[in-house]
């Protein structure tokens, strides 16, 4: 996968496209123009984001410099780059929320976490032993861009404060598992 | 060495006994009202026995102990917040008389670190405070040994009572109030547990380490972001457990910030000890993670650390 001779590596790009004809092609042009070698495209047509966009995942080979140019070129033509990189999204982050988790619109909480933070919610577990109208708890697992962890936690804290929820965070220095 | 011990609670009495076993001589011993003073060495057993039967350690006034003959003042009165009095005055008086000071009381180091250091600079005496950072744990020694520049971050479950409550909640699936009542019955928690469960005790210890780690900045408990574990739902521990994690009251010192609160940690994490144990994790620059764990409170445990400090005095 790594080619240390010329620095070519594999990168995964996650893009969100407007559901219109020609959008997919428009998103691939900057990749070719900037010298990226297209490896695969995963087009999640059935899976629409909360904003009504279609997510796609593109694997490409490029040097890190060229990869940065590709991301920049995509953004210049108005393509929504959600994640970019090989390792940038590799960090897992788990938090617990406690309070009126369900009453305060859990779906909105998840959407806001994804929107304000550089994070993808990968799993949610709920426990509401007293029923959904009472105090409930949630475990939320996230995939976070490497280096964005502090920012993500800050955003979650702010959101929790707005909704009067308690957050149980992991350690600042990462998981002591 | 000749010791003047101020404070005759569980720690003070344990110091008097254990230090004597180590060949030290107790020449002054005081509780809040009374004192036993003898330049040739008091009868420690008799003083402790009087404390138990009559509520006094001797016939002298408590204040006279500080004017007695000793090489080292052992400050073992109850920790106070704010200006850390009366312990701070005891420390000041001893240093101004060029005597050494060994602290078991957290107040002066947690709340007035710079004042203590500045008095120490002008004194022939030396201040040691290994016993303030978690009973038997040699955490202060680890920092001194590795060097503060080599330590990037510290985290730990520093309070035994909070740790007991959370580990029982996790194992038994019980709610906070139930386990707290059990801890109070067992004598693990005080009838007023706020010092422990609200995170103040953890914050004091964390601030002491932060002061030791910092070159130029003084920390007090007011600088720490502190959340306790009061009212934590058993359901949260259940959710954590499903994912191979648990919750502990953790103090963290990272990049000039001190925070204390319930945190998610791995079920088998070295800083998620069981029962009343405590544990500290040091993130070092070149040597990865180091851990110290064990009994973080108790008379003999804390006294053993005081005695270690006595050995290290110049």
Architecture (CATH level 2) name of the largest domain in chain B: 2-Layer Sandwich
Q: Globular, elongated, flat, extended or rod-shaped: what is the shape of chain B?
A: globular
Largest sheet of chain A: 4 strands, antiparallel
Oligomer: heterodimer
Distance between the termini of chain A: 29 Å
Nearest-angstrom radius of gyration of chain A? 19 Å
* Uncertain segments of chain B: none
Computed over alpha carbons, the radius of gyration of chain B is: 20 Å
The count of DSSP E runs of length 2 or more, i.e. the number of strands of chain B, is 13
User: Largest protein interface?
Assistant: A-B, 22 and 33 residues
Shape designation of chain A: elongated
Output the structural class of chain A: alpha+beta
Specify the CATH class of the largest domain in chain A.
Answer: Alpha Beta
Low-confidence segments of chain A, ≥5 residues, pLDDT <50? Answer: 1-5
- Continuous helix count of chain B: 12
List descriptors:
heterodimer, A: alpha+beta, Alpha-Beta Plaits, 2 domains, 4-stranded antiparallel sheet, elongated, B: 314 residues, alpha/beta, Rossmann fold, Dihydrodipicolinate Reductase, domain 2, 7-stranded mixed sheet, 6-stranded mixed sheet, globular
Descriptive report:
The complex is a heterodimer of chains A (177) and B (314). Chain A folds into two domains: 9-85, Alpha-Beta Plaits (2-Layer Sandwich), CATH 3.30.70.260; 91-168, LOR/SDH bifunctional enzyme, conserved domain (Alpha-Beta Plaits, 2-Layer Sandwich), CATH 3.30.70. Helices cover 28% and strands 36% of the residues of chain A. Chain A has helices at 23-33, 64-76, 106-116, 149-162, and strands spanning 9-17, 37-43, 54-62, 80-85, 91-99, 119-127, 136-144, 166-170. In chain A, strand 6 (119-127) and strand 7 (136-144) form a beta hairpin. The longest helix of chain A has 14 residues, at 149-162. The two termini of chain A are 29 Å apart. Mean pLDDT of chain A is 81; it is low at 1-5. Chain B is of the alpha/beta class. Chain B has helices at 10-21, 44-53, 87-96, 107-111, 113-121, 139-146, 160-172, 176-186, 194-197, 200-213, 234-242, 299-312; strands at 2-6, 25-30, 34-37, 60-61, 72-75, 100-103, 127-128, 151-157, 224-226, 245-254, 257-266, 277-284, 289-295. In chain B, helix 3 links the parallel strand 5 (72-75) and strand 6. In chain B, helix 1 (10-21) packs across helix 12 (299-312) and helix 7 packs across helix 8 (176-186). The chains are: A alpha+beta (177), B alpha/beta (314).
């Amino acid at each position: 996968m790594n080619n240390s001779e010329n620095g070519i590596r594999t990168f995964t790009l996650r893009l969100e496209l407007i559901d219109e004809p020609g959008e997919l092609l428009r998103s691939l042009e900057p990749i070719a123009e900037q010298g990226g070698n297209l490896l695969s495209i995963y087009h999640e047509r059935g899976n629409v984001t909360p904003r009504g966009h279609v997510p796609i995942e593109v694997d490409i080979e490029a040097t890190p410099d060229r990869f940065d140019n590709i991301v920049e070129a995509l953004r210049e033509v108005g393509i929504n780059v959600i994640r970019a990189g090989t390792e940038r999204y590799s960090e897992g982050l788990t938090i617990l929320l406690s309070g009126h988790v369900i009453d305060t619109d859990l779906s909105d909480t998840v959407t806001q976490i994804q929107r304000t933070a550089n994070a993808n919610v990968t799993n949610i577990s709920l426990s509401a032993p007293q029923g959904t109208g009472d105090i409930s708890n949630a475990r939320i697992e996230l995939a976070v861009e490497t280096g964005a962890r502090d920012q993500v936690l800050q955003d979650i804290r702010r959101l929790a404060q707005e909704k009067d929820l308690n957050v149980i965070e992991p350690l600042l220095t990462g998981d002591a598992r | 060495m000749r010791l003047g011990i101020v404070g005759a609670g569980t720690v003070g009495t344990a110091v008097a006994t254990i230090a004597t076993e180590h060949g030290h001589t107790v020449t002054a011993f005081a509780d809040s009202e009374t004192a036993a003073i003898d330049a040739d060495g008091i009868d420690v057993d008799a003083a402790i026995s009087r404390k138990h039967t009559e509520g006094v350690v001797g016939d002298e006034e408590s204040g006279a102990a500080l004017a007695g003959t000793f090489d080292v003042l052992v400050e073992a009165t109850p920790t106070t917040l704010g200006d850390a009095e009366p312990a701070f005055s005891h420390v000041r008086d001893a240093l101004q008389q060029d005597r050494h000071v060994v602290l078991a009381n957290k107040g002066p180091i947690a709340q007035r670190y710079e004042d203590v250091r500045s008095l120490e600079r002008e004194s022939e005496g030396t201040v040691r405070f290994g016993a303030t950072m978690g009973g038997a744990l040699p955490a202060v020694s680890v920092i001194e040994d590795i060097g503060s520049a080599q330590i990037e971050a510290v985290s730990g479950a520093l309070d035994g009572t909070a740790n007991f409550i959370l580990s029982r909640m996790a194992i038994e699936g019980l709610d906070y109030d139930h386990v707290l009542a059990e801890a109070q019955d067992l004598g693990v928690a005080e009838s007023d547990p706020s010092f422990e469960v609200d995170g103040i005790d953890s914050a004091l210890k964390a601030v002491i380490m932060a002061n030791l780690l910092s070159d130029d900045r003084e920390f007090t408990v007011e600088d720490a972001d502190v959340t306790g574990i009061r009212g934590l739902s058993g359901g949260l521990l259940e959710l954590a457990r499903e994912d191979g994690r648990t919750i502990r009251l953790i103090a963290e010192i990272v990049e000039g910030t001190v925070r204390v609160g319930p945190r998610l940690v791995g079920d088998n994490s070295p800083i998620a000890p069981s029962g009343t144990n405590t544990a500290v994790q040091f993130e070092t620059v070149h040597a990865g993670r180091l851990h110290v764990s064990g009994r973080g409170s108790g008379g003999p445990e804390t006294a053993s650390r005081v005695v270690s400090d006595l050995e290290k005095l110049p």
